[in-house]
Amino acid sequence: MMVEGEHRHLSLLLTILFIPILLRVASPNSVSAVCDFSFTDGQKLYNYSLASPIPNFPHGVLSEDGFYKVAVNDTVLWFQLCNGMIFSHDLPSCVDCSDCGGPSHCGMECSALVSNDIGGYPVCTTVGHASSVVIDIIDKQNPDRGVTVTMSSYRLKHNCSLSVSVICDSNGVQGPLSFDKLGTCGYTTSLRHPAGCATVVSVHGKGWGWFGTLMIIILCLFGAYLLAGMVYRFFALGVRGIDVLPNLEFWARIPWGIQGFFASLVRKFRGPSHGYRSSYSPVNF
To answer: How far is CA 2 from the centre of its chain?
Structure first.
């Protein structure tokens, strides 16, 4: 009985330890959805899928280390794009990391974390979560340049954010090399990556347009008129067969009218037919 109880305790412990890892690994679709973005410019559709596999980068723009790291003076910035950070090495050691995993798992429950040296102690502040990611074009006049990924974190004392410019570079990855601070808790940085390059699709036309919409409305009104007239003649007047169509005589004359119209046009452009004598032609008695 004791052995069986130990096995159950061990199984429960392993399940608790591995569930977070399995959830991270088994959710690529959610990561891809966060990283997908489309932008229309005239007749071109720019599609960005930052987390989709591309040659030499099976995870797209996501760092294969589980995080990006950049340091300026005594400030260190860790972040991961479109997903939470995963640390197998170089785990942040912070005095306060309450909303990003706590002291023992610091950095594991957010997407961006910054550490500042205050009084000789590294104090960490969460600046972004994957659930708050917003993607936009860097330059709407030049959509091929890339996109900006912005994430944020809101607390009682701080409203923080991180904006990462993913610049299109088909030659490889470069950066991030530095970052800038905006306001009290805003940070910006950039990196060059092939995942920042868009797939461009030509978009022909812009829907039905006003004329197509007008024609649809006219056809719908015409269909409603025929249906209402047929119902009235069938149930109220007791008409049966093809005569149930309202104004049948009028609709029956339309083909003959069209034929006569085109025949008159043909005679007008061809001139008088053979055997036809004009009223002004000379007559021999």
So the answer is: 56
**CA R_g for the chain:** 36
For residue 125, how many other CB atoms are within 10 A of its CB?
21
At residue 263, what is the residue type? A
Task: Please give the Cα distance from 149 to 166 (Å, whole number).
Answer: 7
Are 195 and 61 a contacting pair, CB within 8 Å? yes
As a whole number of angstroms, the distance between CA 161 and CA 52 comes to 25
Q: Name the more confident of 214 and 276.
A: 214
Pairing of strands 159-168, 112-118: unpaired
Contact between 101 and 109 under an 8 Å Cβ cutoff? The reply is yes
The closest alpha carbon to 85, from 70, 101, 63, 66, belongs to: 66
Amino acid at site 114: V
191 CB contacts (<8 Å, ≥6 apart)?
Answer: 68, 164, 165, 166, 167, 173, 174, 175, 176
DSSP one-letter code for 273: P
Q: Give the pLDDT confidence of 191-248 residue by residue, as tens digits.
A: 999 999 999 988 765 556 678 888 899 999 989 988 998 988 889 888 888 888 888 8
List Cα–Cα distances, 128 to 11, 101, 124, 156, 197, in angstroms. Answer: 34, 13, 12, 15, 24
- Kind plus residue range of the DSSP H or E element containing 138: none
Average pLDDT over residues 182-196: 94
pLDDT, residue 117, reads: 87
Cα 71 to Cα 68, 76, 120, 183, distances in angstroms: 10, 4, 16, 18
Cα–Cα distance, 37 to 82 (Å, whole number): 12
Beta pairing class for 159-168 and 146-154 = antiparallel
Residue 282's pLDDT band, with cuts at 50, 70 and 90, is low
Arch. (CATH architecture) of 36-201: Distorted Sandwich (2.70)
Please indicate, yes or no, whether the overall pTM of this predicted structure exceeds 0.85.
no
Q: What does the domain layout of the chain look like in residue ranges?
A: 36-201, 207-266
